[in-house]
Amino acid sequence: MSGIRVTIEDLEAGTTETTEIWNDYLLICAGDRYLADASTTTEGTHVLTIRKGVQP
Length: 56
Description:
Blueprint: E1 3-9, E2 16-22, E3 33-40, E4 46-52
Antiparallel strand pairs: 1-2, 3-4
């Protein structure tokens, strides 16, 4: 099993954070995008709905 290392920098604050991902996924939304819904089909497929705007 392989993994990845992800480093994210907040451009306004200048801070960084690093994490390692093994056999998983990572969703990164920026600006006015947000995860509105996440569901899983009976076959195990994940469906992520990303929306634009202010999160309710």
